[in-house]
Amino acid sequence: MITHLVTWTVCYLSQTYPGSRHDKRICDEEGYTFPLFAELFQDTGFQGYYPEEVITYQPTKKPRHAELDIAERFINKVISSVRIRVENILSAVKRCHIVKDIFRNHRTGFDDTVMQIACGLHNLRVRHRHPDQHFDLLELAT
Fold this sequence. Notes:
Blueprint: E1 2-4, E2 9-12, H1 23-30, E3 39-41, E4 55-57, H2 70-93, H3 97-100, H4 110-127, H5 137-141
Parallel strand pairs: 3-4
Antiparallel strand pairs: 1-2
């Protein structure tokens, strides 16, 4: 799943895979293409995945028997602050419990359809979310 962090929408969804499959293996098989010089914030599950002409950011692991320096900790914090938005989008998609719970329907391709519908409902919810109403207390007092 590829998300847009400004609009909080799901931009791309790969097909679903049965069982436990590693994220990097799925990326290698699918052959994702990114715009030139796109920024890709990835977690440690994608270690070793560096698409061409894409700027990748990945947290630095703490070395054994040592600590990260201040700059590396700061960069890790910035990366995690971006990644938390992606996790929030994933949890919003999982509001449709059919995506989160055990899926027992065995029709071919139906699991992909269910995930597409859940992502579409999330995008619809985000696009039609009402902005917060702002008002000026001083203006109301006069």
